[in-house]
Amino acid sequence: MSPVDRVRAADRQGPAVTYGALGIVYVVWGSTYLAIRIGIDTIPPLLMAGVRFLLAGAILQALAALTGRGDTARRAPIGRREWVAALIAGGLLFVGGNGGVTFGERSLPSGTVALMVATVPLWMGLIAGLVLKESLTRWTILGIGIGLAGVAFLVQPTPGHRFDALATAVVLASPVCWAAGSLYSRRAPLPRQVARATAMEMLAGGALLVVLSVVTGEVGHVHPERFTAASLLAVAYLVVFGSIVAFSAYNLILRRLPTAVVSTYAYVNPVVAVFLGWLFLAEPITPRLLVSGGVILVAVAIIVSAASRASRADALARDPARLGIVDRGQGSDVGHAAGPYAGHRQQVPVAHGVDAVEVGDAPPAEGVADPRGQQAGVAEVLQGQPAAGRQGQRQGLAVLHEGGPVAVREA
User: Fold this and answer.
1) Could you give the 3-state DSSP secondary structure of residue 196?
2) Which of 343, 312, 334 is nearest to 407 (CA)?
């Protein structure tokens, strides 16, 4: 399917599909904490997580191959460099991240674990500032401080209750690993096709989890005859819905909704997890859980809002002189842009509502949405202003040039 065809198809599907996908991300990812808890009732946690991601990665790889036919990104060769990057990213995301959650749920309530994992934006901000030396706004620093206070209150030992220090430490480390893996994936030499890259990360992470299960002696305690139907169904749910369906829905909303709207899943998932844990597992909803959870979610909201404002400020700071006005010619979906630096007219696919694209010195290459932010062929459209990044409120399919993302503006 050509870029223009993809835009037309998206226009036909309408907002119902988009917000339906957002609902899937809300509910399904929030329910994975319950599914993990049920799965590890009779299946060792590391082995269960490893099998989950090996199966999900294999299915996603097959789907990527089928849906990516004719895509130049799919035909790009995959070598040692890409697999090493997938191994690092998969280790951080699926071993340290999801594996840590699965391990921790052996002794911690699923709702508590979900609230601890909701701190991912806090750790992304800290890592970006301390390790990557990115500037942090005052609002981001405030949000990080509030979030850490909420986590400290949440994990504080309660007199008369057993405190599992190891499980708590592992779960606290899991959002740190997920944040580090997410930031690494943005810069790693992974395939441009998002589904293909994610499948490689899942396969690598799943393999590492199985190896870890063997090394820790966990496989010696595997008794297939004791696996319950509930545990097996939970694993199937995690593979099909938690990994494949929710992942596809997440990629869809990344392309069609503003980042601030997409980010709301970080607040909704723990609420869903706490409710389902109470409903199906009789996990208590204590005053401490409510207070600490509220503090953490407020902190996440502050950080996400600060990031959204910073993104828009960066977009407005871009050089507007690089915008080439699109001349469609009799309403065609394919127009020509005359770039001030290019010195020639370039044919570019555009969608209704887009009247300008950034034009580079070199002939551009058509691009597709990439949630990792490496390249953005589908760009966000803000209220009449130049913007760079993923697709936002309107369909803004444009082009890539060497060295940076596109910029588009609303007609």
Assistant:
1) helix
2) 312
The pTM of this model reads: 0.72
Q: Dihedral of CA 273/303/183/387: which sign?
A: positive
Query: Is 296 strand, coil or helix?
Result: helix
Residue type, 103: F
Q: Are 190 and 200 in contact (CB under 8 A)?
A: yes
Q: CA–CA separation, 41 vs 278, rounded Å? A: 17
CA distances 168 to 153, 162, 165, 272, 338, Å, are: 13, 12, 5, 21, 58
Q: Please tell me the predicted confidence (pLDDT) of residue 281.
A: 94
Distance CA 374, CA 322 (A): 20
Integer-rounded Cα Rg, in Å, for the chain is 22
SS3 346: strand
* CA–CA dist 273, 117 (Å, integer): 11
Using CA atoms, how far apart are residues 56 and 240, in angstroms rounded to an integer?
Answer: 7
> Which amino acid type is present at position 393?
Q
For residues 386 and 403, give the distance between their C-alpha atoms in angstroms, rounded to a whole number: 18
* Integer Cα distance of 218 and 103 in angstroms: 12
DSSP string, 351-389: -TTEEEEE--SSPPEE----TTSS--SB----SSS-EES
**Dist CA 61 CA 57 (whole Å):** 6
Q: Are 334 and 348 in contact (CB under 8 A)?
A: yes
Indicate left, alpha or beta for 3 from its phi (over 0: left) and psi (-120 to 50: alpha): alpha
Mean pLDDT by 10 residues, the chain (411 residues): 47 73 93 96 95 95 77 69 95 95 94 92 86 84 91 82 87 93 88 86 96 93 92 96 89 75 83 95 93 92 77 49 40 40 39 42 34 35 32 34 36 30
What is the DSSP code (8-state) at residue 225?
G
